[in-house]
Amino acid sequence: QVQLVESGGGLAQPGGSLRLSCAASGFTFSSYAMSWARQAPGKGLEWVSGIWSDGSDTYYLDSVKGRFTISRDNAKNTLYLQMNSLKPEDTAVYYCNGAGYWGQGTQVTVSS
Predict the structure, then answer these.
(1) How many CA atoms does the CB half-sphere of 34 hold within 13 Å?
(2) How many CB atoms lie under 10 A from the CB of residue 69?
């Protein structure tokens, strides 16, 4: 049974940081590129960042470049998103996805 379980969301102040994790199971994690996407209140799903299966290349939405860092630990079957310099417009439910599967999402709220 494939599972993607996100964690690490919560409330952060503008300028603050959060680190999201996505624990994967039920498939060969190291064989797949993985991504993070988000959905802000009242808006559609937005791709945020992606990483190749071996972590050798990464991609970012322009609005998060220089602030977010995607990474993975294939030995731990875990995907990460380090989010720094958070802005209120980063408020959204964040989802990890890969191999055709999606997690349940974790809420990130940026507010003072």
Answers:
(1) 31
(2) 16
Return the half-sphere exposure (C-beta side, CA atoms, 13 A cut-off) of residue 31: 6
- What would the 3-class secondary structure string for 15-74 be? CCCEEEEEEEECCCHHHCCEEEEEECCCCCEEEEEEECCCCCCEEECHHHCCCEEEEEEC
Long-range contacts of 29-35 (CB under 8 A, 24+ apart): 29/72, 29/74, 29/77, 29/98, 30/54, 30/74, 30/77, 31/99, 32/98, 32/99, 33/98, 34/72, 34/79, 34/96, 34/97, 34/98, 35/96, 35/97, 35/98
Q: What does R_g of the chain's alpha carbons equal in angstroms?
A: 13
pLDDT single digits (tens) 69-108: 999 999 999 999 999 999 999 999 999 999 999 999 999 9
